[in-house]
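Researcher: I'm comparing several assemblies side by side, and this is the next one on my list. It has 939 residues spread over two chains. Same procedure as the others: predict the full complex and return the structure.
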Amino acid sequence: MSNTSTKNEHFQDHLMEHHHKENFFTKYIFTMDHKMIGKQFLITGMFMGIVGVMMSMLFRLELAYPEQSFPILEFFLGKWAPDGVMDPNMYLALVTIHGTIMVFFVLTAGLSGTFSNLLIPLQIGARDMASGFMNALSYWFFFLSSVVMIASLFVESGPASGGWTVYPPLSALPQAMPGSGTGMTLWLISMTLFIVGSLLGSLNYIVTVVNMRTKGMSMTRLPLTIWAFFVTAILGVLSFPVLLSAALLLMFDRLLGTSFYLSDIFIGGEVLSYSGGSPVLYQHLFWFLGHPEVYIILLPALGISSEVIATNSRKPIFGYRAMVGSILAIAFLSFIVWGHHMFVTGMNPFLGSVFTFTTLLIAIPSAVKAFNYITTLWKGNIQYTPAMLFSIGLVSTFVTGGLTGVILGDSALDINVHDTYFVVAHFHIVMGLSAIFGMFAGVYHWFPKMYGRMMNKSMGYAHFWLTFITAYGVFFPMHFLGMAGLPRRYYSNTAFPMFDNLADINVLITYFAIIGGIAQLIFIFNFFYSIWRGPKASQNPWRANSLEWTTPVEHLHGNWPGDVPVVHRWAYDYSKPGYEEDFVPQNVPLAEGEESGH
Amino acid sequence: MNTVSIIVLIVLAILTIVQVMRISEISSSIQGGKDNQVSEKDNDTQGKLLLLVGMGFVISVLVMYWAWGYHSLPAPSSEHGAEIDSLWNLSMLIINVVFFIVQPILFYFGYKYRGKKGTKAVYYEHNNKLELFWTMVPALALAVLIIWGLNVWSGLMMPENEEEPIVIELYAQQFNWTARYSGGDNQLGYATVHEIGGANIVGVDMEDIYSSDDIVTKSLHLPVGKPIKFEFRSQDVIHSAYFPHFRAQMNCVPGSKTYFQFTPTVTTAEIRQNKDVKNHVEEVNGIRAAKGEDLWEFDYVLLCNKICGAAHYNMQMEIIVETEEEYNAWLKEQKTVAETL
């Protein structure tokens, strides 16, 4: 103990010496402060999000009015939309890059990167991440990878277009589609950089959570946000290297003429010399990351919502241990279900059975989480901040989207809806919407912590309602397209008269998509306006228990001006009997005769 | 000029919003209200909105089932398809029951427990019995679905044949399908990309003794009531042979062969008389007539369902299911590879 306080004194001396010497570069570029790095991830993620959403609005326009001319398409796409009619190759490119950007750049780096960095040290009572340098490096790898990905949009032959999963041989052979040329090479380089950045970040999060918790912060007292970030980081460390190897082998096949994934190919009038490889090998490697990736995206959003729902219901989160248990169960199962993406690849039917079994098991911990959220609301005193609305929205989409997983996880049923719009509906609702709602909830909730100011709540409400309604309006009808047998990634469904009667639904979806996309401007405006002009935040505006609200509003390196707080209780003593206030922060010592229970 | 005025308009609009926000913030701080803190009135409004919009969503789902449910594929035209559909119906029943219970509860709780001054939430940490209950109920429901699902799956993948299935190859390339019938010996001749050239589009090796009676066609005729074993190949990228009306799908993977077997049960002539199909055709033809397009007659169709390049959306082949006599007559008219190569 005496050792720690000496360290603290040293630290304070250190602060005094260096605090005034910041300039633009040290503050914004070479910063190793976790709070600033979190903000860097958020702003970069938001920029990528705008690009990704705009792409989806362009291809939605095309899907509603196939092969019709729109000057706006020519404005954005130039030679890829001659006379305003989108080229089929460009359609596939937009779908591919939209998927890549949303999955990796927005919902992995933007979500995990922002909130793990911001909250892990603040909520466990640490002065910074274990390695500030590695942390900064992690952001700059991500930044570089974003630059490469954006650059790939501008190459002559177009960006990668083989779908966000970039299955070879389509992605390996420039003869198969123009996007598999330089655009694909840049895609692979970008993803390689991305993975390096992600690994550096994840290792740091794990080490920090394991080693740097403040006195009294046992694992069972951690806020559920930290549990979620911690388990997410473990998933990332175990699965991203596999994607790295998949990407490297694909690069070898493309550039060095190896045959890991290619065999017996006749294309462009000639037989290629590849022999002995298997495209299905790539799919195994890809989905070994790809499925945990779903939970890398989802768990942080669930963690954020646990915190937001408990705080704003003014109640303890219901079933804390069950919540932790289900995070762990989901994480474990996520590693043994990847084959459900491959039921129709011709893999051994026995494997299909195993993957069906493990996949459907995931429904159990997921159901536990959903029911626990709902019970947390029960007999609460719900404070409707915009963050709370988004968290309730998350519970709704998590249930809606999770349920259709019961169909898709069942190999016998998957056969007929595999790769149709039913799948598009399922994963956009359960993973896309839930994660983006969780991210919005996080931004609204921790904005005062990030910028010391409050976001405008009326605009927050408008943003939520427009987003919630249009999001369901876009994705729910897609179930019906899928049940009618409409495959995904079709540039247009005019080639099949059997789909003609679905055209109206497609138009409706596009209206919702465009309104929903434009509604995000409210958020972006509110965000940037509030950074500079929002009203000043108080230290603990939501009257929450976790440690980040014990730090001063003004940021400083090291987070706490004095000693790091000591923790005496879990993070969920809301409305505890015996206390006048309806919250008891974690650093408040137990009253006489009070039991912590955790 | 036009562009400039639009830009000016946008800038003015933003400035207006900024000013309105400043005014609202200043006026609320004059009234002594805490800025952007949630007031009791907010809780009331948002709680009610949540119930309203939430229930609106739940009701709109019912409306969608009613308005679009009939777009779903008609009853399956294959033996195993009936089993898949029964399992599908049970699964849909279960998930709809959960959906229509859980969503209303969520929105109702959001409304009912909206924050009010002077109330305090109940301190309720956990309840093991309750949690055990909602672990066990999904587990039981899933056990049923898993057991039944695996049964259907293994029946599909490892069919027990009472009679020898007819072997037909489906060959995929960017962006069309080719069928190869195995002929009198019911054995496909060896084929490889190295033999592709001229008329030999699927690369049949004529040295192989099974090759000469193979028949290569551009449309797929199937006899009703006979098990068909499909072998799938691709020469370039991955394609997926998707037969939605038969509840069948299998990827075509370059470098290896994949298989799927099913028995068609309804001929093309019969399904055109199906009530659902007739309604579908009528609706589609109404739309097509209005646009001045050719009218459509229902046909089974094979689609490509794995992204394969620019014309992926138009990679298709007609499927005709007919009586055994019709099928045999059609097959007799086709030329074998020995005659064409």
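Model: For your comparison table: Helices of chain B lie at 2-30, 40-68, 79-112, 128-157, 268-271, 275-291, 324-333, 337-340.
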